[in-house]
Amino acid sequence: YGLAVMNKHVVPEEEFPYISTCGTYPPQSCIFGQLLNFGALMVGSITVTRYRFLEEQGDRSWVNKISLAAGLISALGASLVGNFQMLNEINTHLVGAVLAFGVGTLYFWIQTALAPIVRPSSCYVGQYSCCMVTMAMPPIILQMVVLLTFNFMGHKSEAAIFEWILAMVIFALFATFSFDFHEIRSSGLSVKLREPPARARMSLRETPNVSVITLSH
C-alpha cells in the first residue's frame, strides 16, 4: 500500500484502493506476488499442523479432513491472487480471491465446530482460543456481505475498506492457533521405507560366502 501511494499508482484521497489494486503495477506487484506465495506456504503449513494437532487430540473424523482440504484450497487461492494480477488475468485472480476468502471462511467455521475437541494442558487457553474464533466468525460473514453489496452498488471505497478489514480478521484468526500450537513439543517429517519383497529378504539372508582364488604364475 505504501509503495503504491508513493509511486502514485493509487490515490486514496479520490478512491480507497483494493488490496489487489495496490499490487497491480511494478515494483509493488513483484512484492505482492512474493508475499502472497510465502503467505500461501505458511497457510498450508499451519493447516497441516492444525490437522495433525487435532489428530493427536483424538479427532480422526472426516470433518477434520474436510477442514484440511479447505485450508489447503484457501492457500492455493492466495497463491493464485498473487501470481495472476488483475490487469494480467482478472478471471483467475477473482477465482483465487473467492478461494482465499470464501473457502478460508469455511475453514474457520469448521475450526469453530472442532474447537471443543482441543484439550491443551491449560483449559483456559483452549477456552480463550475457542471464544476468539467464535466471536470473529459473524464479523467475517458480515464483512463479506457488505463488501459484495458495496462493490455491486458502486461504493468501491467502502468495499475496499471492508476487504482490508476482512483480511486482517483472517490473519488474527490464524494467530489464535498459536495458543494451541504452544502445546506442541516436537514436529518433523517422518520417512518410512517400504519393506523389500520376501524373496529379496531371503536372498539377502542366505547369500553364500564367496571364495576368492588367486592364481600365481
- Annotation field: number of helices: 8
Our count of domains comes out at 1
Helix and strand content put the structural class at: mainly alpha
Largest sheet, strands/sense/barrel:
none
Number of strands: 0
Categorize the overall geometry. Answer: globular
Q: Strand-and-helix sequence, N→C?
A: HHHHHHHH
- Overall pLDDT: 77
Amino-to-carboxy terminus distance: 87 Å
Cα-based radius of gyration, to the nearest Å: 25 Å
Helical amount: 55-70%
Strand content: under 5%
Low-pLDDT windows of residues: 210-217
GO cellular component, one term: autophagosome membrane
Main location: membrane
Pfam families: Frag1
InterPro entries: CWH43_N (IPR019402), DRAM/TMEM150_Autophagy_Mod (IPR050911)
Describe this structure in words.
One of its GO terms (cellular component) is plasma membrane. The chain crosses the membrane at residues 35-54, 66-84, 90-110, 131-153, 159-179. Keywords: Autophagy, Cell membrane, Cytoplasmic vesicle, Endosome, Glycoprotein, Membrane, Transmembrane, Transmembrane helix. The chain is mainly alpha-helical and 217 residues long. Helices cover 69% and strands 0% of the residues. The chain is built from 8 helices and no strands. The longest helix is centred in the middle third of the chain and has 31 residues, at 123-153. The model is unreliable at 210-217 (pLDDT under 50).
